[in-house]
Amino acid sequence: MGADSTIQCLLGAKRISLGFIVMSLITRGGRVALLATSLQVSPELECCRAVGLTTGNPQGATMKTRYVVALAVVTGFGFGAIAVQGLHAQATPKAYVVTEIEVINQEAQNAYLPKVGAVIKSTGGTYLARGAKIVALEGGEAPKRVTIVVYDSLEKAQASRKSPAWTALKAERDKALKAKSYVIEGVPN
Fold first, then answer.
1. What pTM does this model have?
2. Per-residue pLDDT tens over the stretch 15-49
3. What is the CA radius of gyration of the chain?
4. CA-CA distances (angstroms) from residue 70 to 3, 30, 80, 113?
5. Domains of the chain by range and CATH?
6. Angle between helices 18-27 and 65-91 (to 10 degrees)
7. Which of 61, 88, 111, 172 has its CA 20 to 30 A from that of 43?
């Protein structure tokens, strides 16, 4: 049985994953860990008995060192790429757009809300708070209405407010409300 047919056999098995196979080969310190005794969990894995034949050693006792090193390098590269991507995602802090609102025309506001919600969603924003109960803690009166929208980055928040869809709503917004908006960059993860 050749290497290609062995890999196909292992990938076709329903109860074993390629990650398990790779980790088994590495954690055994160069020994072939894919012997029939460790994989005989179902009849579909019958072909896995011949894994040792792909190493050039009929007994399948040990793999050649270069195969172990190559496999370790490839696996390390894969895990490294995943780790770097995760770290990059953590390094970019989210941005929060806070808008203090005073409604000046309730009918115009009612017509404006669905449109602005669609624009915020289409530009990558998600509402965290939208006009719920507001309680002043310090510094005077609380605004009458507040919205908080989160974006993946400060740049995306700014791009949302400069988008053609947002600027197209300016006349409706001015008719419906007075607003004060600012964006706050969050703490990095």
1. 0.54
2. 344 444 444 444 444 444 443 333 333 444 444 44
3. 30
4. 15, 11, 15, 58
5. 3-89 (no CATH), 93-185 (3.30.70.100)
6. 120
7. 61
